[in-house]
Amino acid sequence: MEPPGQVLSTLEKDGGRRWLWPRLARGRFWAARRIVAWALIVIFVALPHLSINGKPVILLDIVHRRFTILGVTFLPTDTILLALGLVGWIVLIFLFTALLGRAWCGWACPQTVYLEFVFRPIERWCDGTTGRGGKPSRPPARWRRWLKHVLYLLVSAGLAHTFLAYFVGVENLRQWVLGSPLEHPVAFMVMAGTTGLMLFDFGYFREQMCTLACPYGRFQSVMLDRRSLIISYDPRRGEPRGKMRRSSDAAGQSLGDCVDCQACVTACPTGIDIRNGLQMECIGCAQCIDACDAVMSKIGRPTGLIRYSSQEAMEGGSARWLRPRVVFYPAILLVIGSLMAYMLARRSAADVTILRSPGIPFAQSEDGRVLNPLRLRITNRGDRPATYEASIVGDDGAQLVMSQNPFVVEPDAQQTVGLLVSLPREAFDKGVHHLTLRVTDDQGTEHQVQCQLVGPLTAEGNDRHDRHDQQDNDGEAG
């Protein structure tokens, strides 16, 4: 059965893909977007090479579970901080969308930036469709087609290497690039796979990433409201649409300003008709605005038939941006930011944890003392190596035995050392003894951790257990 109309902008009625060759509208918004896009590309390429206090600006080391953001390293023990940061980022997206709609998609999203300002210009130049749009009237020369694919591959490889630098670091990436693939086959396969994904995305999948794969457009219904900034067509001014000549020749006609030239449709990178109202596929790139303004200028009509506005303003209502959600979202961000600042200010220079060694919980020496094998794990958050020394606080009968004490931990590293705590049998109450361990670094900073030691029950505890067992046996006999 043939559908009554077009279901998706990238889907033909027969179910095949509708390929898009959008016509480039060189207007004021396109010029501004080009400046923003190239600035973002420069920032994206430069960030992995920059550092703050000897640390990279951004390094998401998933393998070693270390995330460095703006020179601050977050470790697995910073789960709460990372969770707060993630929640804050989501709330920021809600606020940005409530205010500016999908401006992120059209102006700053890497998918749009690289597709519209790197890959499509290469395609237009190689296929000879610059300024025309639509499918090429005749196939380009074979060498131009090969050149396009070679340029696609080179750009995809460079983009993939830059993307991986955020996860493996510039130095590791440089070693991978300069070394033989046989020396690091896994790393080579990761780079090749990432390059292939980039080539598939920007060379084939393209706008379908925005219209089919990306969930952001589908979230618009809950993140937008009637006062959010969107690209809008003014039907009160444009309808009824029809062919019209210059304004001096249009006297006596009852048609609106829209001349139904389809310029806004041919310029749309996702293939929609903005005159049908707000649609999920609209990415807010303003190409339809530039195309329509150019036509309005030619026929002597005011520009702005298609413009950035809101549904409320288009219907003659208020254009105020202040509303409950615009106040509520910043309030949440303020709370989250305050919590993160407080936790960062109170975060110690080292994380000290006592772990019980695997195996038997305790042992007894020949002289009757109880031995508890433990592990001391220290994470050095500082920027330089630190020396740590462990000792027992306020327990005269306890003895601490370590294979190395003091010991050195490298910056942003974690080290675990074994230790043995020896106590007399009488120190245990009901088989338990609470101990405080003090760890001091070479700067004089102290960290105290509580640990619970286990041992045999004392004579008093044995008598009590014997009475309980006897009562249980009497109850069963009764």
Folded structure, characterized:
This protein is α+β, with helices and mostly antiparallel strands. It has 15 helices and 16 strands. It has helices spanning 28-46, 79-100, 103-107, 110-127, 142-168, 170-178, 185-205, 208-213, 220-223, 235-238, 263-267, 287-298, 311-314, 324-346, 459-477, and strands at 51-52, 55-56, 58-61, 66-69, 72-74, 230-233, 306-309, 350-356, 363-364, 370-380, 386-392, 399-402, 407-409, 413-423, 432-441, 446-454. Strands 8, 9, 10, 12 and 14 form a 5-stranded antiparallel sheet that branches. The longest helix has 27 residues, at 142-168. The radius of gyration is 34 Å and the shape is elongated. The N and C termini lie far apart (82 Å).
Topology:
Layout: H1 28-46, E1 51-52, E2 55-56, E3 58-61, E4 66-69, E5 72-74, H2 79-100, H3 103-107, H4 110-127, H5 142-168, H6 170-178, H7 185-205, H8 208-213, H9 220-223, E6 230-233, H10 235-238, H11 263-267, H12 287-298, E7 306-309, H13 311-314, H14 324-346, E8 350-356, E9 363-364, E10 370-380, E11 386-392, E12 399-402, E13 407-409, E14 413-423, E15 432-441, E16 446-454, H15 459-477
Antiparallel strand pairs: 1-2, 3-4, 4-5, 6-7, 8-10, 9-10, 10-14, 11-13, 11-15, 12-14, 15-16
